[in-house]
């Protein structure tokens, strides 16, 4: 089955960098699991970002979701959408498999479009401290679970241009 973004997701992706949109569209069409863009999962105003930081949902005001110098948001959040419901966490193995499907599909989209992406499940390269981890470095689907070990802040839904 080939998935496509619904109208709400399309509206929530307004203002996202065209290259990142291409990655997301290629990813959803290749994914084994459907996905959606949650509320505030696309471009955000600075006020929205400050509100998320105040609530503890985000760690920084300098988010890539906020308009960058080129006028676009450089981040998107994608969550599994299964049987008409969103999966907001990865508590069970079955739920994690849907999240892994999205990561693997975004890797595919990033490779296809030649775009370096960082995933919120692995912020930095585990081998080189403080170097942003490029999702294209994932060699196999089984690597995804290994990458999340030791990550202090998990933001499974988050993908940003690096």
Molecular structure report:
- This protein is α+β, with helices and mostly antiparallel strands.
- It has one domain (7-117, 156-161): Muramoyl-pentapeptide Carboxypeptidase, domain 2.
- It contains 5 helices and 6 strands; from the N terminus they run ααβαβββαβαβ.
- The protein has a 3-stranded antiparallel beta sheet, with helices on one face. The protein has a 3-stranded antiparallel beta sheet with strand order 2-6-5, covered by helices on one side.
- A hairpin with a 2-residue loop joins β3 and β4 (85-86).
- α2 crosses α4.
- The longest helix is centred in the middle third of the chain and has 21 residues, at 93-113.
- The protein is globular, with a radius of gyration of 15 Å.
- It starts with 6 loop residues before the first helix and ends with a strand.
- The model has no long low-confidence stretch (mean pLDDT 89).
How would you describe this structure in keywords?
globular; 3-stranded antiparallel beta sheet; 11% strand; 34% helix; 162 residues; Muramoyl-pentapeptide Carboxypeptidase, domain 2; alpha+beta
Helix-strand layout with pairing:
Elements: H1 7-12, H2 18-30, E1 35-36, H3 46-54, E2 75-77, E3 79-82, E4 85-86, H4 93-113, E5 117-119, H5 143-148, E6 158-161
Antiparallel strand pairs: 1-3, 2-6, 3-4, 5-6
Helix pairs in contact: 2-4
Q: Major sheet: size, sense and barrel closure?
A: 3 strands, antiparallel
Helix content: 25-40%
Q: What count of helical segments does DSSP give? A: 5
Low-confidence parts: none
CATH topology: Muramoyl-pentapeptide Carboxypeptidase, domain 2
CATH architecture level-2 label: 2-Layer Sandwich
Estimated share of beta-strand residues: 5-15%
Number of strands: 6
Report the mean per-residue pLDDT as an integer.
89
């Amino acid at each position: 089955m080939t998935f496509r973004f619904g109208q709400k997701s399309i509206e929530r992706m307004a203002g996202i960098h065209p290259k990142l949109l291409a990655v997301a569209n290629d990813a959803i069409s290749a994914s084994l699991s459907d996905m959606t863009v949650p509320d505030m999962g696309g471009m955000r105003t600075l006020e929205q970002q400050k509100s998320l930081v105040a609530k503890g949902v985000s760690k920084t005001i300098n988010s890539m979701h906020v308009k960058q110098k080129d006028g676009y948001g450089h981040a998107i959040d994608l969550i599994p959408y299964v049987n008409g419901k969103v999966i907001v966490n990865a508590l069970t193995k079955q739920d994690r498999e849907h999240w892994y499907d999205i990561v693997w599909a975004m890797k595919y989209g990033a490779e296809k479009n030649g775009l370096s992406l960082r995933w919120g499940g692995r912020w930095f390269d585990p081998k080189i401290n403080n170097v942003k981890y490029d999702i294209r470095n994932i060699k196999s689907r089984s690597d995804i679970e290994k990458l999340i070990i030791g990550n202090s802040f998990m933001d499974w839904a988050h993908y940003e241009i690096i």
